[in-house]
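The material for today's practical consists of a large collection of protein records. An example says more than a description, so a record of this kind follows:
***
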Amino acid sequence: MNDNNEGNINSILFEKREILNITPISTLSRQISEINLNNSDNNDDEGDIVLPHTKRRSSVLRRMSVGYQIDDNQKLKTKLDIFTDTNDELYKRSNSNTPNCKINDFEKLKVLGQGAYGKVILVKNKYNGKLFAQKELKKASIIINNKNIERTLSERTILSKITSHQNIVKLFYALHDNSKLYLLMEFIPGGELFKYLIKENFLNEKSSCFYIIQMSMALNFLHKFGIVYRDLKPENCMLDKDGYLILTDFGLAKKSTDDQDDNNWCNSIIGTPEYAAPEVLKGENYGSLADWWSLGCVLFDLLTGNPPFTGNNHQKIINKVLKEKPKYPFHLMTSSKELLNKLLNKNIDKRFNVDDNWISYQKFSFFRHYKFKDIENRNIEPPIKPIINNLENAENFDIEFTNMKISDLNGDLNVDSNINDNDCFNGFSYTASNSFMDSYLK
């Protein structure tokens, strides 16, 4: 793809959502303001909504903001140790026997995204040539803004334990120096599904089915651990080099504790309003069923080119989510409408519980195009195959960022490894096992 065509696609990518002012809550952007939708007095740890003032940014940077107030190091240690004692055999753990590395072991190649509090950079290990997406977050931004670090740590804590699902992004290293936190993750070169949706306007039922199956498998996998994803949307779904879907951006994901009911243990008004379930927007208790509503919204988006409820400001969108029924275009097939009706039921007691009815779910007419097992085994030719000429050029990412000069970022790097013993982020570091890395870093 030449530069002119790529520029046109990226222009269209932002223009479509800008027309409707459809922007996500809690986006990491250059300027962020916070509002509270009548939820300031609840007991949940994440009761704020963040609204961006700028257009959408690359999803790899979203949700790097934080919320909890940390009074002392012990409270932080409690959050870091959230998964330490679990014996759940569903977790395929990676050990820490791999030799440690330092942040200056990686060469910066391209900027993939940038916001007020950090950036994501394509980096290459200087010694073995492996590529990673390096997410950076400034420690000072967390401390100065007196936010909850749980959102910052959620990707580190969840992804360091959830390592076995092919549709979930992989974490290989978590590092920090005196100034920043770093998550070195799987580089997914195909870019956002959202980009291709904008280019195609909307997808047919068969193509949509291919991606919905993969989202469903990833969500069902997470829900087995009591993890609610809370921000499913096309921007958070990326395509690998073969065109298979990878779920990214776990900054809003949250894990229940053993004494919490999986169906109603969250009550944060959080996520993206176009895709958020009614119970989420009302500040009610919710759980994994909220993710299945979001899947319905994504399915509607894939099939029509827009989510089911839109408006020129967040309040109008929220009012529609709470009060209106989705209006199906004439071209939607009966099989699509059947599944949408099951997922987009505002009554949580009547919404189809996919996790409890996983086998029945796979038998919906909408899924007649593919067998779940064939997609799981990657036996299907994807409907969209990313064009990748050179992995190091990050061709499928926004040129607004990839054209930035790496030399302009060098002043940000702090490679001092002598971290203060009193640093409240001690315990953040993580290294995956050699065998795990060898499995995914070809």
Observations:
- The first strand starts at residue 32 and ends at 35.
